[in-house]
Design goal:
This protein is an alpha+beta fold and about 160 residues long. The chain is about 25% helix and about 40% strand. A hairpin with a 4-residue loop joins β2 and β3. It is globular and about 45 Å long. The N and C termini lie far apart (about 35 Å).
Length: about 160
């Protein structure tokens, strides 16, 4: 299992950065190799990706989500991976966005790509393109402000 952590600072308020990140179906506009993301439910997404000439489809489950703070997910089929993206206000108009991903390469091509640092470069590039995307827009295209709690930390009723 490989772990990659990358950070960028975006010149928008934390609420704007977070809100845009929740628009998963727009990820192909700034994530390299992401061909399509379908939001099936509040917590289930379906992905079509191409990495190193290999096309994969998989579903990912959002396991924790707190507005303006974090979105955490894990794959539930297909390539095994998990990650979390966090949002930290730097000041009223700037946000630090940090993505941490864990991925288990399958097959020779993915293992070679991982050994060559492809995942690290891709995550770094995706965050850079996200920064450009949201700064050029200046405002989010939508938002989902709901919360998702891990099963063992559900709030009291």
């Amino acid at each position: 299992m490989s772990t990659v952590t990358e950070t960028t600072e975006v010149a928008v308020p934390v609420r704007t950065a977070y809100n845009q990140w929740t628009q998963f179906e727009e990820f192909p506009q700034f994530m390299e190799g992401v061909e399509e993301v379908q939001q099936r439910t509040d917590t289930l997404t379906h992905w079509v990706v191409e990495i190193g000439g290999i096309r994969r489809e998989f579903d990912a489950q959002i396991v924790e989500q707190t507005p303006d703070q974090l979105v955490e997910w894990t794959s539930i089929n297909g390539p095994r991976h998990a990650g979390v993206v966090t949002f930290e206000p730097m000041d009223a108009g700037h946000t630090r966005v940090t993505m941490q991903m864990e991925i288990e390469p399958t097959g020779l091509a993915e293992s070679a790509a991982d050994a060559l640092g492809l995942l690290k470069r891709r995550v770094k590039g995706d965050l850079s393109r996200f920064r450009e995307y949201i700064e050029q827009r200046g405002a989010e295209s939508g938002a989902w402000r709901g919360e998702v709690h891990p099963p063992d930390t559900l709030p009291p009723r």
